[in-house]
Amino acid sequence: MPRHLFLDSSFLDHAYQNKAFPIGANQTISHPYTVAFQSELLQVQPNDRVLEIGTGSGYQCAVLLEMGATVYTIERQNELFKKTNILFRKLQYRPKRYVFGDGYKGLPDDAPFDSIIVTCGAPEIPQALLGQLKIGGRLVIPVGDEAQIMTLVVRDSATEFTKTTYGEFRFVPFLSGKE
Ligand code: SAH
Asked: For the chain, which has fewer Cβ within 10 Å, the N-terminal or C-terminal residue?
């Protein structure tokens, strides 16, 4: 779907370059390559229940909706939350739930999820998110401070997880609380 719809008009010329761009509130829309990379790692099946942490511009959420997922998405930055809410209505993208809150907590009331995608750089893997995966579920999360290592965690059983890493990416930080 057209990426330029998710950027301010001053960045329209850049929409199809493989770059991150500002979306307000010091946040960025991810590189298209990164969105594709994370989306592929999720192995989304139609009607999968997917939790996204970091709604941002709404672009990754829209990609997941186009893939047939039922999307739950959380944003901690109120200015962005409101702006993207207007955009979702305008473009008629309908996440199942769009929540203003702290992604570190996940969404316990809607868990478990088939997969969880974190679109900000996490200092570590939050336990709460691991606990909200179905057995067989997948968590895709960039882990690290300065730069992040793309990490896939598959829940093999109630207590067992398999972790695979996929090289370096750069994300804005996964911050706690909301503002
Ligand atoms: N998926 C977005 C990427 C935006 S950048 C897109 O397609 O545009 C990452 C986003 O994560 C930012 O909007 C940032 O505010 C948000 N974020 C950071 N920490 C968060 C947290 N604890 N809970 C929810 N969102 C968070």
From this structure: C
> Is residue 69 in a domain?
yes
Atom of ligand 1 nearest to the CA of 80: 13
65 lines ligand 1 (CB under 6 A): no
The model's pLDDT over 114-145, given as tens digits with 9 standing for 90+, comes to 999 999 999 999 999 999 999 999 999 999 99
Give me the domain span that covers residue 136: 28-169
What is the distance in angstroms between the CA of the first residue and the CA of the last residue of the chain?
30
Q: Judge if the beta carbon of residue 60 lies within 6 A of ligand 1.
A: yes
Q: Is residue 20 part of a domain?
A: no
pLDDT score, position 119: 98
Q: What is the pLDDT of residues 54-75, one digit of tens each?
A: 999 999 999 999 999 999 999 9
Write the DSSP assignment of 117-160 as a string of letters. EE-SBBSS--HHHHTTEEEEEEEEEEE-SSSEEEEEEEE-SSS-
Number of domains in the chain: 1
